Amino acid sequence: AKQLGTNKYAFYSRDLGERLRERMVRESGLHRALERDEFFLEYQPKIAVQTGMVCGMEALLRWQPTTQGSQVSPSEFIPILEETGMIVEVGNWVLETACRQHLLWQQQGMPPLTLSVNISAVQFHAGNLPETIAALIQQTGIAPDCLCLELTESIVMQDIEQTVATLHRLREQGIKLSIDDFGTGYSSLNYLQRMPLTELKIDRSFVMNLPQDTSAIAIVDSVLTLSKSLNLTVVAEGVETPQQAAFLTARQCHQLQGYLFSRPLGAAAFEAFVDFSCKT
Ligand code: C2E
Ligand code: CA
Ligand code: CA
Ligand code: CA
């Protein structure tokens, strides 16, 4: 038994060391990713239930290291960016790149779709976000009501007074504010009604279990009821099946996003998707 225990320890310890090293390598690689131009964005369409047309897009960060064959998943590199604080700089790059792309699309005649950008809790609390956004609007000329920030519930869990004040300073500029992955965190209804939000996004983990699972139905229904009383737009993420879409449409969810409609797309493919969906 003792022998087994020792082996077990050796196994875990080697495994951990390996993972740490791998992480360090990636971290140093990440350090150069911006200057090496290794980041790019994909855009996932959001569909308005009422019209069946594209009404917006979510910008999603991608990393393709030049020294590696394949892309690294955001779930792997974003936590490292957050732990090292690099997410502030990279997050600003995402905001600026996405807004410039949006402007280009406007100049090409694309309808004024809402551009959603993910904001990390670290970025929200560390950087001077309201000033950053004000400068961004000034420099890129994006219409403020075309920009939506997707925030996580964890942002709200920290200093509530400070958070509410920052949210107001953002909302006063005319941009939209969304709570991402809603239902997975612990935000209380009391806090929620104090925040100047425009949108809630139902997390994929609930959508996934529709339309069979009764507790998923109960959660989705309560988010929809809550949104109605707070006058918020509701978006369902991770919609993969026609059955899920039909269920959410019947319950008057406003917008749908997921592989059923489209995976995240490069800029050119997104343009083609919007063209296609407008002509049909
Ligand atoms: P998220 O904000 O919840 O984004 C949705 C994720 O679900 C994306 O994964 C998207 O590709 C994926 N997805 C969309 N539709 C479906 C579907 O129908 N089925 C399934 N299985 N997945 C779907 P992705 O791009 O790997 O991003 C993962 C997470 O990384 C994001 O989750 C977000 O939290 C974070 N992230 C991505 N880009 C950024 C960024 O620019 N800044 C920050 N702070 N976080 C980002
Ligand atoms: Ca998101
Ligand atoms: Ca989400
Ligand atoms: Ca999610």
Strand order of the largest sheet: 1-2-3-4-5-6-7-8
Quaternary state reads single chain
Give the overall silhouette: globular
Give start-end ranges of low-pLDDT stretches. Answer: 1-10
Percentage of residues assigned to helices: 40-55%
Number of strands: 8
State the distance separating the first and last CA atoms.
68 Å
What binds here, in terms of ligands, is: ligand C2E, calcium ion
The radius of gyration is 20 Å
What is the tally of helical segments? 12
Mean pLDDT: 89
Structural class: alpha/beta
Taken as a percent bin, the fraction of beta residues is 15-25%
Largest sheet: 8 strands, mixed, barrel
The succession of helices and strands, N to C, reads HEEHHEHHEHHEHEHHEHEH
Structure summarized in a few sentences:
With 280 residues, the chain is an alpha/beta fold. The protein has helices spanning 2-33, 74-84, 87-107, 121-126, 129-140, 153-156, 160-171, 189-194, 204-207, 214-230, 242-250, 267-279; strands spanning 39-48, 54-63, 114-118, 147-152, 176-182, 199-202, 233-236, 255-256.
What features would you describe in this structure?
The protein is an alpha/beta fold and 280 residues long. It is built from twelve helices and eight strands. It has helices spanning 2-33, 74-84, 87-107, 121-126, 129-140, 153-156, 160-171, 189-194, 204-207, 214-230, 242-250, 267-279, and strands at 39-48, 54-63, 114-118, 147-152, 176-182, 199-202, 233-236, 255-256. An eight-stranded mixed beta barrel has the order 1-2-3-4-5-6-7-8, surrounded by four helices. Helix 8 links the parallel strand 5 and strand 6 (199-202). It is globular. It starts with a helix and ends with a helix. One calcium ion (CA) binds at residues 181, 203-204, 237. It comes from Trichlorobacter lovleyi (strain ATCC BAA-1151 / DSM 17278 / SZ). This is Response regulator receiver modulated diguanylate cyclase/phosphodiesterase. Residues 23-278 form the EAL domain.
